[in-house]
């Protein structure tokens, strides 16, 4: 390092990008493999990189991983920095609209919900969520998809921040943050008392 301001800025930028690498962050936080099946579900702009890291880390241990993630439309086409997931029973990569959910996002969300609902007692469900995840998850509760789209669009036009958006999503979307916990008993983590 020369101490020149341009070099310092370049080094700082490189360090920030490395620290924010979703794959590295996920790899460092992965739990031990489960007794049962490892099921991965997720949504967000960085979940493709996160899911790749999960498949690679557990694949090195001989653990089969299956599941599905939702990313914004066009993500698969732009994924030139590594293999797209899904060979065999791996992690499916589904696409949907962001920030206003479309029919593809709704169908993808239903796929994720079905996978989670089908998990067995010994299975481990690993949920990957990154920026845009709550917008990509669209499973209307008590209203049509067109109505949910209208509500989300109205909130966006009003300038509502993501916290306000998520308050509404929790009430009108079965897959929104916190919505799945209502009415379900949480399974204890292995080793937890």
Write the layout of secondary structure elements.
Elements: H1 5-19, H2 22-29, E1 38-43, H3 47-60, E2 65-72, H4 75-78, E3 91-96, H5 103-117, E4 124-129, H6 133-136, H7 145-158, H8 162-172
Tell me about this structure.
With 193 residues, the chain is an alpha/beta fold. 44% of the residues lie in helices and 13% in strands. The chain has eight helices and four strands. A four-stranded parallel β-sheet has the order 3-2-1-4, sandwiched between helices. Strand 2, helix 4 and strand 3 form a beta-alpha-beta unit. Helix 2 crosses helix 3. The chain is flat, with a radius of gyration of 18 Å. The relative contact order is 0.14.
- Report the β-strand fraction as a percent range: 5-15%
Span of the ends, CA to CA: 49 Å
**Secondary structure tally, helices:** 8
Radius of gyration based on Cα positions = 18 Å
Major beta sheet, strand line-up: 3-2-1-4
Please give the largest β-sheet. 4 strands, parallel
Low-pLDDT residue spans: 181-193
Give the class from helix and strand content and strand pairing: alpha/beta
Give helix and strand order, one letter per element, not per position.
HHEHEHEHEHHH
In total, the number of strands is: 4
In round numbers, the mean pLDDT is: 80
Overall geometry? flat
Helix content: 40-55%
Core attributes:
193 residues, alpha/beta, 4-stranded parallel β-sheet, 44% helix, 13% strand, flat, disordered C terminus
Quick overview of this protein structure:
Helix content is 44%, strand content 13%. The protein is of the alpha/beta class.
């Amino acid at each position: 390092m020369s101490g020149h301001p341009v070099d310092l800025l370049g080094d700082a930028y490189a360090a920030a990008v490395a620290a924010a690498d979703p794959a590295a962050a996920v790899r460092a936080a992965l739990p031990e493999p489960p007794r049962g099946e490892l099921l991965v579900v997720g949504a967000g702009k960085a979940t493709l990189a996160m899911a790749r890291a999960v498949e690679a880390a557990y694949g090195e241990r001989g653990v089969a991983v299956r599941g599905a993630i939702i990313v914004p439309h066009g993500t698969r086409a732009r994924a030139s920095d590594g293999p797209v997931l899904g060979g065999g029973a791996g992690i499916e990569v589904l696409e949907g609209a962001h920030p206003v959910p479309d029919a593809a996002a709704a169908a993808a969300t239903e796929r994720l919900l079905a996978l989670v609902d089908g998990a067995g007692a010994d299975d481990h469900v690993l949920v990957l969520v990154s920026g845009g995840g709550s917008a990509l998850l669209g499973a209307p509760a008590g209203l049509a998809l067109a109505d949910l789209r209208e509500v989300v669009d109205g909130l966006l036009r009003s300038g509502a921040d993501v916290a306000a958006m998520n308050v509404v999503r929790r009430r009108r979307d079965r897959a929104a943050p916190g919505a799945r916990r209502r009415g379900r008993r949480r399974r204890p983590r292995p080793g937890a008392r």
